[in-house]
Write a structure and sequence with these properties.
Blueprint lengths: L1 H61 L2
Organism: Lucifera butyrica
Pfam family, one: Flp_Fap
Keywords: Membrane, Transmembrane, Transmembrane helix
Length: 64
Amino acid sequence: MCIKMYLWWESVKTNLRNQKGQGMVEYGLILTFVALAALVALTSMGKNLGTMFTTVAGKLTTGN
């Protein structure tokens, strides 16, 4: 009886450890996807943003 309880407890501990590792992997994947989405968005808008900032800076320096 004690051996069965011990084995059950060990399996519970192992499952808890595996779930914590799984959570870290999921957070890592989410972070990777968010960073990739930001990179794609900024890359696609990069030229337009550069032009817009140059226009704004030009208007600020000339006073228009």
